[in-house]
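User: ADP-heptose:LPS heptosyltransferase, Azospira oryzae:
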Amino acid sequence: MKILVIRRDNIGDLLCTTPLLASLRQTYPQAWIGVLANSYNAPALAGNPDVDAVFAYCKGKHRAAGESLLGVWWRTLKMLVGLRRRRLDLILVASAGGSGFARWIGARRIIAQEERGGGHEVERTQRLLQSLGPVPAPGPMRLVADAAVRARLQAALPAVPGEGLRLALHVSARKPSQRWPEDRFVELVRRLLERGVVRQVLLFWAPGAEDDPLHPGDDAKAGRIMAALAGLPVAPVPTRHLEELIAGLSLADVMLCADGGAMHVAAAQGKPVLALFGKSSVEQWQPWAVPRQVLQSDSQDVADLDVETVEAAFLRVTGAS
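Assistant: Predicted structure for ADP-heptose:LPS heptosyltransferase:
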């Protein structure tokens, strides 16, 4: 049996599909299972034992400098032709906009859900299996860090002896409603270090300049936070590629961040997560199958969360309260 799963949106969405992939592998152990993803999120499937092949197409906005749209479209067309020639038995469309790809590739059967119901994104995706028989309960998300990248990042970190947790702190968020003020990050870090519950902080952020028209980043913001915390055990972890973010977060004991792809990367590696939610659905997107605390103010703006509230939630998720 040859099965293709199409998931063409963001990193978190793809990771929320990994329990479905595990269920397919369990149900059809001898099947060939492929995934059609995009070049941005595809590294999240590297080393996944439930997947035989990953096919990544490049969205126009992600094309390399100097690469034409025509060239991007041509490569995508060749990839789709190759998939069509595989004569697939089943295509599962797990994201909006994937049905067009599915119809072009073709299969003996195509399953796509226009209305997936409520619940977590993992549960909504798992319902794609309903028409194939009993739907198994979804397990945890799955993500494998690259061992060589992990070792390189580990070697670059200063050793901090003693007890306490290594905290991954991600200070970036795509949505304005999910951006916690940087001075509160600074105050929180000082408090947690003074308590002794944290021995080292790994600082993560979206790479790039704030004024980048395509991919704005927080290099300047991270620099200001590092300057404010000079002399404390806080180490910047630049992540120019998704593989580095995955490996870097694998080095931490616990994660504090806004809702977004990095939150799911941590959860998929079994890390306890404290997540700050703005204008997004906690029910659908909260960290899956890990110890977690989720904070969302009545205004649905994380700027309305004070340091004391976030500190108390961190102590709860780590069991230090």
